């Protein structure tokens, strides 16, 4: 038990940035927009959150800065693909490259400077419980927020009129437009939400997971978040399960490498999430596979309103 509990806690922390970013991307894709720039938004969110924490010392301002940075970058993406109707795949890839370069430039003066990590929230009477306490009631605010947002997104999509409209826009934008819904505005809202969540995912990396700034510290997690959405068949609670599964694989390979006891090479375990991401993104390019996975019908297709 002394080994199992820290292992499970590590799985939760490894899964949190994936869950935040994937939950936001799920909303974006349910609205019919494919944003491959999650990695770039996470990086910019990570450096902006770190800079805000380093300068102000306020965790709240740092988290807001990370979310705002991701939203601003996603707004740029929205202008290009929604207003100017550029290719969503190419624009998303460009956004990732832009975020990589911008974060490196912004973070040049912060390399090697440590900060105080996000504080764990102690819940009286619960955090001190054996096993359950450290496992469920001794995490920072972003861990709880990631699970809360997953539930909120699931409720919004399945039990509210706004969620029904958003799903309708993703399934048939022309039909939604014909009955009076502003497709472009709805998609802008979804894209901004997805950017803010990706920024929070990056903020978690620099504020809690490894409380420092390292260039390229997302290490492909944005791409894994994209794959999670497809693995989950665009269902929020499946995204939650998939994030913890990917987090478990990441932590297990680190523990296996540290213990020196492995049945397969640790390099193989390390590459599994990225290999799965490549497979998923390849499958997404096939219309027949996307249909069987119940992907939103308008995913990745530009919309030009006709009067």
Automatic annotation (TrEMBL):
It is a multi-pass membrane protein. It is found in: Cell membrane. GO terms for molecular function: transmembrane transporter activity. Keywords: Cell membrane, Membrane, Transmembrane, Transmembrane helix. GO terms for cellular component: plasma membrane. Coiled coil: none annotated. The keyword Cell membrane applies. The keyword Transmembrane applies. It holds the Pfam family BPD_transp_2. The chain crosses the membrane at residues 31-54, 61-84, 90-111, 141-157, 188-207, 213-232, 239-256, 262-283. This is ABC transporter permease.
């Amino acid at each position: 038990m002394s080994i199992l509990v820290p292992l499970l806690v590590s799985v939760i922390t490894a899964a949190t940035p994936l869950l935040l970013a994937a939950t936001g991307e799920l909303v974006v894709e349910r609205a019919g927009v494919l944003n491959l720039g999650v990695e770039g938004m996470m990086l910019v969110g990570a450096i902006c959150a770190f800079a805000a924490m380093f300068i102000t010392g306020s965790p709240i301002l740092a988290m807001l800065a990370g979310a705002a940075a991701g939203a601003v970058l996603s707004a740029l993406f929205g202008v290009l693909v929604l207003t100017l109707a550029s290719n969503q795949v190419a624009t998303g890839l460009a956004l990732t490259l832009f975020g990589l370069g911008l974060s490196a430039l912004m973070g040049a003066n912060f390399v090697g400077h440590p900060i105080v990590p996000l504080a764990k929230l102690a819940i009286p009477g619960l955090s001190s419980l054996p096993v359950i306490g450290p496992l469920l009631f001794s995490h920072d605010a972003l861990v709880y927020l990631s699970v809360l947002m997953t539930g909120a997104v699931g409720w919004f999509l399945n039990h509210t009129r706004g969620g029904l409209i958003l799903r309708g826009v993703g399934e048939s934008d022309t039909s939604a437009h014909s009955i009076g819904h502003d497709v472009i505005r709805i998609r802008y809202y979804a894209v901004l939400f997805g950017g803010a969540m990706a920024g929070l995912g990056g903020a978690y990396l620099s504020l809690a997971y490894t409380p420092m700034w390292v260039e390229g510290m997302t290490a492909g997690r944005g791409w894994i978040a994209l794959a999670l959405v497809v693995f989950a068949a665009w269902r929020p609670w499946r995204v939650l399960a998939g994030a913890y599964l990917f987090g478990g694989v990441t932590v297990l390979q680190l523990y296996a490498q540290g213990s020196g006891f492995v049945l397969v090479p640790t390099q193989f375990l390390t590459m599994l999430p990225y290999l799965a991401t490549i497979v998923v993104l390849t499958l997404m390019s096939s219309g027949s596979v996307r249909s069987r996975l119940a992907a939103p019908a308008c995913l990745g297709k530009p919309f030009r309103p006709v009067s």
